[in-house]
UniProtKB/TrEMBL annotation:
GO terms of molecular function: protein dimerization activity
Any single Pfam family the record assigns to this protein: Dimer_Tnp_hAT
Organism whose genome encodes this protein: Aphis craccivora (Cowpea aphid)
Domain of life: Eukaryota
Protein name (record): Zinc finger BED domain-containing protein 1-like
UniProt domain HAT C-terminal dimerisation: residue ranges: 3-56
InterPro entries: HATC_C_dom, RNaseH-like_sf
Amino acid sequence: MILPELYKLQQKYLCIPATSVPSERVFSKAGLLTNDRRNRLSPKNLNYIIFLNSNLNLL
């Protein structure tokens, strides 16, 4: 194997999920983030917030 570390990374991060739980989790977070105080967020900014919230554990 030429790049074993790259292989390990791709195994961890490029796998196909077996269930729809991760996508359902994102929709759930979106519902929690949009409330009466944040009803004027643009879709673009809401996407940024959801992305950051979902990937916070990778930082």
